[in-house]
Amino acid sequence: MTEWKPLQGVDADALIEIRLQAHNAVQWINRAARGLSKAQPDDSHTNMGWSDKLQALLSHPLGTTGVQLGLAVDRMALVVVSGESLKTQIEISGKTDAQLCDWMESALKEMGEDAGDAMKAPLPYDIPDHRVQKGGTYSLDGLADAAGEMARWVGNADFALSQYAKRHMSIGLGPSPTRCWPHHFDIATLTYLEEGDPETVRSIGVGLSPGDSAYRLPYFYVNPWPTNTLGDLPDLQSLGRWHTEGFISIVLTSDDLQAADDQALAVTNYLEEATRVCLKLLEGA
Question: Would you say the pTM of this structure is higher than 0.70?
């Protein structure tokens, strides 16, 4: 993505419904990746990148053919891509998970791949409840605008975080590639400040959550780690605000961002201040 696309603002309930359907739909990409890729300790073999051309979240190249699977968020369609070319797709609206599973298995076989038992295996984590998990159908009825808005959120996050990574390559070990993780459905980059055990070394996570139990609508976050020795949390000058219930983070909420005159500049200023603050807090950790 080469530029920020202004967020339009759509009905909140519609955006939440699209988020839940998309979160469930990408699990078929996740299952296929588990069946066709070598497992990584951090589950990174299942994460996805953003294709601005296709407006889609795409898997890593999979199997022996390098096929990629994805979700075109703007039209809510599962896609199969090979060599950057769209090979086949299916709109998920009106389909059940069982039908999407059958389609994905068939599409993979046509590409010379077979994910085996992974396609029907239970997920190794929980995701938010939705009717599709109990045999209900996906539906885009009345949600087309929300799908477009969700695509803008994800695309903008990819743009903002990719630019962020370029600005901060000299920090610690440098930001990781910007990827979307199917567990929480967030798109993020992580910077370790030193070598060592990922569970204990200092790091800064920067990303976008499309919404969760803490905030119903999308929000950007900058998370310092570890948090047990941070001390007093300073006041902030940008649109960011401290979140301290359940986790410690500097967040930029949907309402605050969409009220800004220049959304792209607001995100940049927020990310820069939040990173400075987190680095200072972690100096003595």
Answer: yes
